[in-house]
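INFO  loader      accepted 1 record
INFO  loader      residues=365
INFO  predictor   begin
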Amino acid sequence: MFRPDDKEISEILESSKKVTKTDILKAIYSETLSLNDLAALLSPEIDNELLKKLAARAMELSRKRFGRAISLYIPLHYDNRCTNSCIYCGFNAKNQIERKKLSFDEIMKEAEFIRSRNFKNILLVAGEHPESADVETLVPVIKKLHEIGFTCVSIEIAPLEEDAYRTLVTDAHLDGLYVYQETYNKDIYSTVHPAGRKRDYDWRLETPERGANAGISKIGIGFLTGLNDLSEDAMMLASHLIYLQKYHWQSEYSISFPRIRNAQGVNSEFKNISDRQFIQLVCALRLMFPETGMSLSTREYPGFRDQIIPLGFTNLSAGSSTAPGGYCSESKDLEQFEVEDSRTPEEIAEILKQRGFEPVWKDWQ
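INFO  predictor   done
INFO  writer      dumping C-alpha cells
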C-alpha cells in the first residue's frame, strides 16, 4: 500500500529553496524528470521568463502525445446527501440545505437530456452517503447508461471495498473511478474532515489501489488546491502517481486540478492559489507526466479556461450542474459548489474549434 514519505518530500522541498535558474532550465528540457526536478519546477523562483519556457514545453509535450483532441465529459449529480463534515464542501452534513436523492427514473431523465447534447462520457457524482454508494442500486444505473449510448461511465462517490468495485466492473462495465485525496498532509486532512468516514485518511488513500485491483480501467486522482501548501501536495501526488503507475500499471491514470469555490457553509478563510500558481502547477505536472491525461472542470472561469487548455488538458467538462436534477429543473439550492463556467456544451465546443482543437464527445483514449 502506498504511504507518502513525508521526510523525503520535506527534504526535497527544503533543497529546492537553493534551486538556480540553471537547475530549472535543466528540468524544463529534460526527457524524464525526478521528484527533485519537479520541486524545481514548482519553485517560487520561477520568473515570468522561465514560466513562459515551462508553458511552451508543456504545450509541446501535450501536442506530441495527445494531438489536438479534447474529450468532453459531464457530471451527473444524483444525491447530495452526505455523512461527512468536510468544511470546504457545500454537501457538508451540517449544512442546512435541501437534500435530494434522484430515483432511477430521475437519473435516466437527466441522462437522456445529457445524451441529447451529444455527450458519451458521463461521470456519476454523489455525496458520501451509504445509499448513494449501494452497489445493487448502481449496477442497473450504470448498465442502463451504457444501453442509452454512453461509451464511458465513471463514478465519483464514497470509496468502496475492492469487491464492490469488482462487481461494478464485471456486472455493469464500470469504466472509471475518480477519487481525490483533497490534501496529502495528514494534520490538515484531519482538520478539514472533522467527522464522517472520510476522516479516515488511509482508507481514502488506498481507494485508487482497490479500484485498480478490481480491474477499473481509468482512475483519476488529485487534490483540492487551497487546503495546503501547493508544492507539498503536488509532490505527494506525484509520488502517489509514480507508485500507482509502477505497481498498478494495468489501469490508466489522470490528474484533476479542483480549486475551492464558493458554496453554502464553506469556510471563507481558505486561501486559494493564484492563476499564475495554477498554471505553474499544471505545466510542472505535465512535464513530470507527459503520458498522463489531465482534466479541467467548470470550477474555472471561462476566459481563464480558454487560455490554459493548450497547456496540457485532455479532458474538459462542459455545461455542468452540481445539483441533483440540475439539468432538467432549477435546483440552485442543491449545488455542491458554484459553477464558474456556465457556457453551454455547444459554446465550449466552438471555442475549442476556434483555438484549433477537436472536441470529442466520448472518452477518445
